[in-house]
């Protein structure tokens, strides 16, 4: 029996798990929207983001569509607003001009939907239909809310004004001894066919061959990134791809987003706090092009998506792929910096208990890691339960991000979880680590 089969829950256990996760995600949405006043909730803090009140009602609307109407077979709560909160109908930049629910109405709406959902959860059979097996539809909605909570956290980071969010800092790091870990050549199992709440693009499990390579043990730090800046990395086209350099010129990039020069040094703004750039923290708020340019300057490259996942999941002792770098256990505070417990990445070298079998650290949590792969389906992919979750994005202008950030909830990231965004985006909590080929002698 595999460990995932061990993990299958009976209907009552599924109900308990779902209820607990629904409460946790709502507590976070409430906290992120209660932190600012109503004016702030309806304001657009950046053209890249929706007003926070849009995210809130959109969370409720998706929950209504899938859990109240589809799973529960109940009457609509507010069919009249479906169109307003359909992310495909309105670009983020246009959302503030829509006749959106006010903060009071949005809060009342999400509460009404949630009350019905708890009733549906109590009374629906959680079997007989793939959508509800192991509570999948509920898990999808929990992840959807948590994904929007991370988006709302990114909106908070873009917001101008006095700090309103607070959290303790992570503990100081234990520095790893090795700079790189060796990943041996050979096949491994990528993706999953058994993880109950895995989304369609993570499926199915399939074997992928990966050549031997070296991966940085930890993400690239601010200190290392400062060396790239000091060496004129932003001024030398030779480190950049053609598209990357064109973007660097057009967008006038000179440092990670939210950084500013301060005399001889640098400061950054983090949720309204201006502070010196901490050198031992993973760099965050860089776009794919910046990550790739740094890697080239460092004599390395970004890992591909299969390389990243093999380094994270492959256990050479058993030959199998783990659910998470540290094993099959759900993430705890000892494993990874997740869940907005801290409002910053932890210093590089943190979380020795979260180490992968091959010795890499902080693959899950801290910063999303850009990898050099496009968004494509795995062999045998089938859209489920709707094409708009993944399929419509395949082949678009995206690069993949893996592993989640300090802003990602544990329910919304796994060793197999795949995130994607435009390669120029950097309002997200994105960093990276480097890889390099192994020489033929090393690869043996
Ligand atoms: Fe959404």
From TrEMBL:
Top-rank lineage group of the source organism: Bacteria
Entry annotated with the keyword Cell membrane: no
Pathway it works in: Amino-acid biosynthesis; ergothioneine biosynthesis
Pfam families with a match to the protein in the record: DinB_2, FGE-sulfatase
The keyword Calcium is assigned to this record: no
Amino-acid positions noted as binding Fe cation in the UniProt annotation, renumbered to this chain: 58, 144, 148
Protein family (similarity comment): Belongs to the EgtB family.
Function: Catalyzes the oxidative sulfurization of hercynine (N-alpha,N-alpha,N-alpha-trimethyl-L-histidine) into hercynyl-gamma-L-glutamyl-L-cysteine sulfoxide, a step in the biosynthesis pathway of ergothioneine.
Protein name: Hercynine oxygenase
Organism whose genome encodes this protein: Actinokineospora auranticolor
Lineage: Bacteria, Bacillati, Actinomycetota, Actinomycetes, Pseudonocardiales
Gene that this polypeptide is encoded by: egtB
């Amino acid at each position: 029996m595999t460990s995932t089969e061990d993990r299958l829950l009976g209907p009552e256990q599924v109900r308990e798990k779902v209820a607990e996760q629904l409460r946790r995600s709502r507590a976070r949405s409430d906290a992120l929207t209660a932190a600012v006043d109503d004016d702030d909730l309806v304001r657009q803090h950046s053209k890249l983001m929706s007003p926070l009140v849009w995210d809130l009602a959109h969370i409720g609307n998706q929950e209504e569509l899938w859990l109240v109407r589809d799973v529960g077979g109940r009457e609509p709560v507010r069919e009249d607003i479906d169109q307003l909160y359909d992310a495909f109908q309105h670009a983020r930049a246009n959302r503030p001009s829509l006749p959106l629910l006010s903060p009071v109405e949005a809060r009342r709406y999400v509460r009404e939907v949630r009350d019905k959902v708890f009733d549906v959860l109590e009374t629906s059979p959680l079997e007989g239909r793939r959508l509800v097996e192991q509570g999948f539809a509920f898990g999808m909605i929990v992840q959807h809310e948590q994904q929007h909570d991370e988006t709302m956290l990114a909106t908070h980071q873009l917001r101008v004004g006095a700090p309103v969010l607070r959290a303790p800092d992570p503990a100081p790091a234990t520095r790893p001894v090795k700079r790189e870990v060796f990943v041996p050549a050979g096949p491994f199992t990528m993706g999953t066919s058994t993880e109950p709440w895995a989304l369609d693009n993570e499926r199915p499990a399939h074997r992928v061959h990966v050549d031997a390579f070296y991966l940085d043990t930890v993400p690239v730090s601010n200190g290392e990134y400062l060396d790239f800046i000091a060496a004129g990395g932003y001024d030398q086209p030779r480190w950049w791809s053609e598209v990357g350099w064109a973007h660097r010129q057009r967008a006038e990039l000179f440092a990670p987003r939210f950084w500013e020069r301060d005399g001889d040094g640098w400061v950054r703004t983090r949720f309204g706090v201006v502070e010196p750039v901490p050198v031992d923290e993973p760099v965050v708020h860089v776009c794919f092009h910046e990550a790739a340019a740094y890697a080239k300057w460092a004599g390395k490259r970004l890992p591909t998506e299969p390389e990243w996942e093999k380094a994270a999941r492959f256990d050479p002792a058993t030959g199998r792929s783990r659910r998470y770098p540290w094993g099959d256990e759900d993430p705890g505070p000892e494993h990874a910096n997740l869940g907005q417990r801290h409002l910053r990445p932890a210093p590089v070298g943190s979380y020795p208990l979260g180490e992968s079998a091959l010795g890499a650290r902080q693959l899950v949590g801290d910063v999303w890691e850009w990898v050099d792969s496009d968004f494509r389906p795995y062999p045998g992919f089938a859209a489920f339960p709707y094409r708009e979750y993944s399929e419509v994005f395949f082949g678009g202008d995206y690069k993949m991000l893996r592993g989640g950030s300090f802003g990602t909830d544990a329910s919304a990231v796994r060793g197999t979880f795949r995130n994607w965004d435009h390669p120029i985006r950097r309002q997200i909590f994105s960093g990276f680590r480097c890889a390099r080929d192994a020489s033929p002698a090393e690869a043996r």
